[in-house]
Fold this protein.
Amino acid sequence: MELSDIESDLTSVLYTEEQIHAAIAEVARAVEVDYAGREPLLVGVLKGAVMVMADFARELKLNAQMDWMAVSSYGSGTKSSGVVRILKDLDTDLHGRDVIIVEDIIDSGLTLSWLLENLKSRGAASVEIFALLRKPEAAKVHVDVKYVGFEIPNEFVVGYGLDFAEKYRNLRGVGVLAPHVYS
Ligand code: IMP
Ligand code: MG
């Protein structure tokens, strides 16, 4: 789905598919340098990170594995609950692994700070984070994020994996959801 296909549901377009791909490529170049000679395990957080993971993993000129976790923190509203529950755990043993968590967005930071501690406690050699988007003004806890695509304003965005009530994930770009859609 193109941004133009749902124009009236958005108040603005933040990033096109091309801009997102360029940002992901830039992060991939940094990761190739930082992880030279190693084989990182990319941990995608379902479902929002599916698009970022697919593009990032293919862009990387490194051997990398992929695994997935599903956690719940949101329900179908637009505010973080702070309550994190594992809905699907990893299949991979993290002992000695270099883990890169791949996320769509950091909003309050509550989900990622919890996930970071959880994965570290499983014996990983290292755990870093790549988040495509970050809302600095929404931060409730500090999270050390090594790789960020874009910093965005504190507004509810959809597309490129990000949903509102499971809708708009298949949008190619990222836009700000119009209030009339959720109010
Ligand atoms: P956090 O715990 O507040 O950092 O956010 C956790 C999760 O909420 C993210 O991984 C997203 O899945 C979701 N989320 C946060 N902000 C947005 C948004 O603007 N649009 C869609 N989903 C969001
Ligand atoms: Mg997410």
Residues 129 and 145 are 5 Å apart (CA to CA).
